[in-house]
Amino acid sequence: MNNIQSNDRRFGYFFVAPAVIILSLVILAPIVIAIITSFYDYTLINRSLDNFIGLNNYFESITNKKFLHSTFVTITFVFFVVLFEFLIGFLIAILLNQVERFRNIYYFILLIPLLINPVVVGLIWRMFLHPQLGILNYLIGFIGIEPVNWLGDPQNAFITIIFVDIWHQVSFMIILLLAGLASIPEEPYEAARVDGANAFQQFRDITLPYMRPVIIITLLIRLIFALKTYDLIYIMTKGGPGDATDLISYYIYRSAFIGLDLGQAASMSVILLFIVCIIIYPLFKYMSRADE
Amino acid sequence: MNSKHIQLNSVTKKFQNNTVVNDVSFDIADNEFFILLGPSGCGKSTTLRMIAGLEEITSGSIIADQRDISHEDPKDRNMAFVFQNYALYPHMNVRKNLSYSLKLRKITQNKIDEKINWVTNLLKIKELLDRKPSQLSGGQRQRVALGRSLVRDPIAFLLDEPLSNLDAQLRVEMRQELISLQKKLSKTFIYVTHDQVEAMTMATRICIMNQGEILQIGPPQDVYDQPNSIFVAKFLANPINNILKSNIINKNNEIFIETLGINILNEKLIDLSEVFFSIRPENIYLESYDRDKTIKVEIMQIENHGHELLMTSKLINNNQLLYFRISKENKITLGSKVTLGFNVEDLLFFDIINERRIK
Amino acid sequence: MKTFISILLSLSFFSVNASSVTLRAVMENVPDTKFIQELLPEFTEKTGIEVEFEVMGYGEMHPKLVPSLTASKGSYDFMPVDFYWVGEFDKAGWMMSLDDMIAKDSFDTSVYFDSLMDLTGRVGDTTYMLPFYNYAMGLTVRKDLINDSTNQSNFKARYGIDLKIPTEWNEYLNQVEFFTDKDKGFYGVVNQGGKADPIAMEWSNYLFARGGSFHDQNWNGLLNSKEALEALNDYISMISNYGPLGAESFSFDEAFNVAAQGNAYSYLTYNWFLGSYNDPDQSSVVNKMALIPVPGEGGLNGSWGWSIPTSSPNPEAAWEFLKWVESPDIAKRRAEMGGAATRKDVFDDPDLNAKFDHYPGLKKLLATSKNFPVFTYTPQFVEVMGTELSKAVIGEQDASTALANMNEQLEELAAKDGKR
């Protein structure tokens, strides 16, 4: 490497250094600290690293029925939420892509739920869903449906939080997918029309292949965020009724700040991190392969 | 032989309040190589797309094989379209690109393989079958686009400036290939271009359009020799045409053309005081001895085109410019004054107001 | 000369400012905090000490406090402590003993209700806190419906006893049944069955009303008793038969709204809700709700206590504040504004009794209130109760299993805390 190139490289490092340092401090360091903590008996009342217990916390977590239940509830929640947000979001994006007039107005209206703070979303919907005083049961009363116990019945509660999450987050999908759709050139579609493809075939043979990287990225990002859903549960159900909606983030939070056992909570977080990495890895590989 | 294979009757296209194609009518016969020629924005591509069904017609009708196809879907018209940017399916390899339309029509795999074989041999793209479009050069993509239209056995081929993205050398080659291809297939080709060299060399008839309207239709040589308007005279020129203005003085039997300083016999010019006229550069000669008339000019510019020189000169008594072509052996210098010869029959006259030719 | 004097003056000004202290504290976003904020200027004028409150919601206080408490020199000079946290703070040694300061200044702590001193005052034999405000729970009932003569004759005909302010638990259960008319959308009771705080707090009252308790002096669990089972069956029956749809997930504001909109006869809740019932902006049953002690053998106590962290930067100044805010005069004025007092002398004050006619009832309430188990894992146990009770209410497990689970986990947590 000659002088110019090595100078260039050093300059590059220099430029990137501040960002890397900050990222390390803010993201990497806490992760490392959490991992270290997970190997100790570290509680909020006795905050010292005196008690090394190795993999004990992990063992306790994996055999903890409540933790496993939360994991199961979370995976089910994430599956449905991502699936429906994707399908609905894609449908709306396709429709919106064909609109010419007033597109910006529709866009803005659809964007509003996403802009609302999740805590506020939870509070608003709690009000709407009140069985006697809320507006939802009032409205469905007009078409002769009996009042529904939205958050008090365990099955209903699970479906309800899925629904509220969709209401809140679907526009995230819409934005990303719409951007992807808008970047597809018009001409392959025209060639396909001439070749005799109907709308479905055009979608399958042109839209989907073009959209593949965007779809994967969108699903990936949404998946990671959905696994971390916390605010909605904290505001709307506190994990109940029973433990029907006890999502993993909320469970880990309670272990740390109510159960005061930071070491155990840290081990659960590490396990969650591990699960997320496993889920992402094949998608990641697929992305870099699809790039060629 | 059907002289009315494809007909356009008063076809108009409006985008909101903007009329892009205005009352266009023509008939295309079987096996014609019909070329729509005009500058950018003249409506030629829109017209082609309406024939294909990619654009809706605002009013008028399109008939093909005696069937009114004005509102039919593109796929029902059985015409093939070759796009300027090829529009290949980027996620399919060449083989899949070629067989896509056939698969949609549920043609058996055997037949598909036969057709692919035939087309790839014809266009010499057999070795490209497993490549994706991103791995092909411009010329190769163009052939695949052609191939995609060939496998379908359509009633007509519609081509939208297919050569404009290729380099000059490749363009010349492809012109020849397209001409021989059309002859071999014996199919109707409707072709759009802004390049008048392509139009002149390939067409059986050219159709000149400007601002959404048809200006002239006819075999290339006819249109070239007998342009209906100044626009056509200027547009169909390689590289340029001479259009000059002159006062006219009526002298009993003869007409005096002031700019050229000559008297001619032409009853059509009797009542006029001013006129435009054209004379092609190739019809102006350095040796004036066996020509009808002469004109004195001063040499302003010499352009060396390799095989010949294009001269820009100024009329001595007038200041208007006159272009003419001479072989490179002639040693004429800038600023020198020469006498040029021409024949009266090569003069074409155009009305001073509507710019149409006075016949 | 003039220059010399002005320099001297400005230097002295500086030094005065340098010696003036600013006390900082995290405070909850409740009316009692607002009342104190209005009186703060008087404290500053009297002592020269500035006081700055960081006001926030309940959920944010604990996470804010803990880092400051574990530091050697924290950011906060005094703090309110919820009874939930007393065990934890004591175990971690975060609270300063107030015994010496109380003795030195002869501060009279006998004015506080015994139950409140037990809850947020003393731990063992040491005084760590001065009770700040109470949130004991009581029963709110529609006295207008009780006083209605038609109701009275119908009730007597059906149950053979008079319709009056209930003092016995079974009497109350009858009234709940009597007033429920689901077709008309009126319910005998509205419960706050939501996880974890609401249901745990509310059900504790049912347990005490039936004469049950959580544990004995040796922290052996008593939740598998007959009384506990009756209490849980009562609760399940209330929600399923006499309560509105969705009560299984109500927090206290949702339940309150049902009662405040006139759709329920009774609601077991925090005593300070009475003010909200009588606020026409929030309620349509102004002056129709009476606050009474929970019928039976007493309801659930709740309170906050003032404490000085061991990491307090200015403990002496903090003690000055505590003395001031809990002085008889200031305590009375806070109560006058509507604060939930913790002192017997406030409840005996004639002026306040003239102003608030619910005071005698409230005094009796406080005197009979029972405490929730206070130890390091109180919040954790509240979570446990929340889950087990909730599952019983929605029918996922039967009542005795729920109680057995709660009992087992109570003993486990107590053992973890070294109580047994």
Can you describe what's shown?
The complex is a heterotrimer of chains A (292), B (359) and C (420). Chain A is mainly α. Chain A is 75% helix and 0% strand. Chain A has helices spanning 3-37, 56-62, 65-98, 103-115, 118-128, 135-142, 154-182, 187-195, 199-227, 231-236, 248-257, 262-290. The two termini of chain A are 28 Å apart. Chain B has 2 domains: 6-235, Rossmann fold (3-Layer(aba) Sandwich), CATH 3.40.50; 242-350, OB fold (Dihydrolipoamide Acetyltransferase, E2P). Chain B has 9 helices and 19 strands. Chain B has helices at residues 44-52, 74-77, 94-104, 109-123, 138-150, 168-185, 196-202, 220-225, 230-235; strands spanning 6-15, 18-28, 33-37, 59-64, 67-68, 79-82, 156-160, 188-193, 205-210, 213-218, 242-251, 254-257, 262-264, 274-279, 293-304, 308-315, 321-327, 337-342, 348-350. In chain B, strands 6-7-8-3-9-10 form a 6-stranded mixed beta sheet, sandwiched between helices. The longest helix of chain B has 18 residues, at 168-185. The radius of gyration of chain B is 25 Å and the shape is elongated. Helix content of chain C is 52%, strand content 13%. Chain C has a 4-stranded mixed beta sheet with strand order 8-9-7-10. In chain C, strands 3-11-6 form a 3-stranded antiparallel beta sheet. In chain C, helix 10 packs across helix 11, helix 10 crosses helix 19 and helix 19 (378-393) runs antiparallel to helix 20. Classes of the chains: A mainly alpha (292), B alpha+beta (359), C alpha+beta (420). Chains in contact: A-B, A-C. At the A-C interface, loops of A face helix 3, helix 4, helix 12 and helix 19 of C.
Key traits:
heterotrimer; A: 292 residues; mainly alpha; MetI-like fold; 75% helix; C: 420 residues; D-Maltodextrin-Binding Protein, domain 2; 2 domains; 4-stranded mixed sheet; 3-stranded antiparallel sheet; 20 helices
Task: Produce a short descriptive summary.
The complex is a heterotrimer of chains A (292), B (359) and C (420). With 292 residues, chain A is an all-alpha fold.
SSE arrangement:
The complex is a heterotrimer of chains A (292), B (359) and C (420).
Chain A: H1 3-37, H2 56-62, H3 65-98, H4 103-115, H5 118-128, H6 135-142, H7 154-182, H8 187-195, H9 199-227, H10 231-236, H11 248-257, H12 262-290
Helix pairs in contact in A: 2-12, 3-7, 3-9, 4-7, 7-9, 9-12, 11-12
Chain B: E1 6-15, E2 18-28, E3 33-37, H1 44-52, E4 59-64, E5 67-68, H2 74-77, E6 79-82, H3 94-104, H4 109-123, H5 138-150, E7 156-160, H6 168-185, E8 188-193, H7 196-202, E9 205-210, E10 213-218, H8 220-225, H9 230-235, E11 242-251, E12 254-257, E13 262-264, E14 274-279, E15 293-304, E16 308-315, E17 321-327, E18 337-342, E19 348-350
Parallel strand pairs in B: 3-8, 3-9, 6-7, 7-8
Antiparallel strand pairs in B: 1-2, 1-4, 4-5, 9-10, 11-12, 11-14, 12-13, 14-19, 15-16, 15-18, 16-17
Chain C: H1 2-19, E1 22-28, H2 31-47, E2 50-56, H3 58-70, E3 79-82, H4 83-92, H5 99-105, H6 114-120, E4 122-123, E5 126-127, E6 129-134, E7 137-142, H7 143-147, H8 149-159, H9 169-179, E8 187-189, H10 197-209, H11 226-242, H12 252-260, E9 264-270, H13 273-277, E10 289-292, E11 303-307, H14 315-325, H15 328-337, H16 344-348, H17 350-355, H18 359-368, H19 378-393, H20 399-416
Parallel strand pairs in C: 1-2, 8-9
Antiparallel strand pairs in C: 3-11, 4-5, 6-11, 7-9, 7-10
